[in-house]
Amino acid sequence: MINNILPLLLIVFIFGSPALAAELNRPSEWAVPLQLSGVPNLYKINNNLYRSAQPTKQGMNNLKNIGVKTIINLRAFHSDKDETGNTGLFNEEISVNTWYIKDKDVIRVLRIVLKKQNGPILIHCQHGADRTGIMIAMYRIVEQGWSKDEAIREMVDGGYGFHSIWSNAIDYVKNVDIEKFKDEVTWLQEKPVQATKSLPRDIGSAKSYLIPALEIPTFLFLLNMFDRLAYPNEVEHGEKTFSTNLSTFWNNLVHRSWGVDHDTFSVNQFAHPYQGSMHHGFARSAGLNYWESLFYANVGSFLWEMCGETTPPSINDQIATGTGGSFLGEVLFRMANLALEGDGDKPDILHEFGAAIISPPTGINRFVFGERFKSVFPSHHPATFYSMQFGTGLNTGLNDEESSSTINRYEAIMYFSMAYGLPGKPGYRYERPFDYFDFEFTGRGNSDHPLDSIMIRGLLFGSDYAVGSSYRGIWGLYGGYDYISPHIFPVSNTAVSIGTTFQWWLSQTIALQGSVLGGVGYAATGNINEVRQNDYHYGITPQGLLALRLILGDRAMLDFTGRAYRLTGLGGDDKERAESIDHLKMGFTVRIYDRHALGIQYITSIREHGYPDRSNSHQTVGTVSLVYTWLGNARFGAVGWRGTEDQ
């Protein structure tokens, strides 16, 4: 009797249990369920792809132990930073809302998966059912050639817990234009291959030496015409400054000696470098590499010195425009192309416009020459950190009797910074100039003094190195351009330095990033409120920099940057005069929610200047600011590498 009942009970148990019945009837091509502590609803799609619900911190460690290298988090209001911690797992955050699926989010996920870099990959949302289900369904269709009905059936009936309330997810998969979708998904993968056949380490094969050779003189001609109209009465040495002709060109080229000029500080030390960045940008966006573009920037500067003005050619302008402008131009070119690269979509009109604002020559060449220069510069996906701050500054610590009455006590402050190519990212290489750079911009809510500072340093050539498992760095020759103008006295320097940039994990959650540089440049400094000829000097300038950023997990950051300049007067207009300028910036930032943070920062500048036989003059100015900070995707920018094969 029992022998007859047991088979019947077994049949009733099996077919009376929907979950077990589903497993027994599960098609072999569907995802395979797995059991792993801390990773609920885990399934294996293939050797390169898994899906699950939200893993715990222990689950992330277990995923690493089974070989997973990249986590794609689809949750809109949750970051995996705490869970991944220092596991060495790559973390991709793609905010997806179940009620409104965007093509660009699905495309971005599929591009990461289809690259098959840093795999295997796990895709998860909160429950591992709906958002994750959509991504897997689209992967099945686009990559594996499933029909829409087959992919939807697995998404809904595969045992992942799909919620029927999200019928829009089914409609999305049913209605998507697959052929168009495939083109979008593969666009960024194909473009770099096409674009880098002849120049695999730089921008592309559609390069032209002729186009920038025509664009730069055209730009200089238009600039001269504008200056003639804007400054018709400006006269130096008895001649109108911008009334150039063949005679003035020949006079500058053959008869006049090179010297230094004393145009206003902002013209010589900011406008001229920005002009040089235009020269560099025209060449760079026409496919030339960095060194070729540096040459074009210097030739453009030389042409301006010969033909743009009637005044004698000046050494300071040639250096600031040709070399400082090239440093600035490369940073702007890189940032513009980072904006174009975006999440991997074809750049839309807003991204094109944003890139053109950052680097006008890039925008001009992309617009005028169409597909010829449409290739996006291959960034090679550097580790980046960027932030933007807005706040109110209190000017304090002022020691300058002549200038104190002209300075507002309270001012609005705007600050933007980007570190590009931070050391430690596995697989990233420093093969091209400025594969690492640091850019800082500070503006003030003061119509008479809106530009406070621009500071750039970038690795011209060097290499990476490692010390143990917790320290990664780069070292080599850096190029730098600084423009610092704190109300009462400015300083600007174009320099080359030897140094290092590093990250050191001090503990599981605390990291120290920094740069130490020492070098020499050609600098200018003066008094903003004095007659421009009286206290405005140039010279060869030894300089040093120490920058440190202490990252306290995902919650807070303490940063310090000190710059020192020692203007000697050699190579300038007053060899006896000596200048000593120090610029210090300190800040503390606390993340409140997601990318939103609050902070306090203090900036001070100190200047001592004089002659050997006289007592030095002393000037100081400081600003304390309370700021709101918007953080980039990388939050405080700590780079994770521990636990990876590249260690």
Describe the structure.
Helix content is about 35%, strand content about 30%. By secondary structure, it is an alpha+beta fold. The protein has three domains: about 10-195, Protein-Tyrosine Phosphatase, Chain A, CATH 3.90.190; about 210-375, no CATH class; about 390-630, Porin (Beta Barrel). The strands form three sheets. Strands 9-10-11-12-13-14-15-16-17-18-19-20 form a twelve-stranded antiparallel beta barrel. A six-stranded mixed β-sheet has the order 1-2-3-6-4-5, with helices on one face. Helix 15 (about 350-360) packs across helix 16. Mean pLDDT is about 85; it is low at about 10-20, about 190-200 and about 530-535.
Just give the CATH class of the largest domain.
Mainly Beta
CATH topology of the largest domain: Porin
Largest beta-sheet characterization? 12 strands, antiparallel, barrel
Total number of helical segments?
16
What is the CATH architecture assignment of the largest domain? Beta Barrel
Helix content: 25-40%
Q: Give the CA-based shape.
A: globular
Q: Which structural category do the helix and sheet elements fall into?
A: alpha+beta
Main sheet: strand order = 9-10-11-12-13-14-15-16-17-18-19-20
What does the average pLDDT come to? 86
Radius of gyration: 30 Å
Number of domains: 3
Question: Unreliable stretches, pLDDT < 50, 5 or more residues?
Answer: 8-22, 188-201, 530-534
Number of strands: 20
* Strand fraction: 25-35%
Distance between the termini: 66 Å
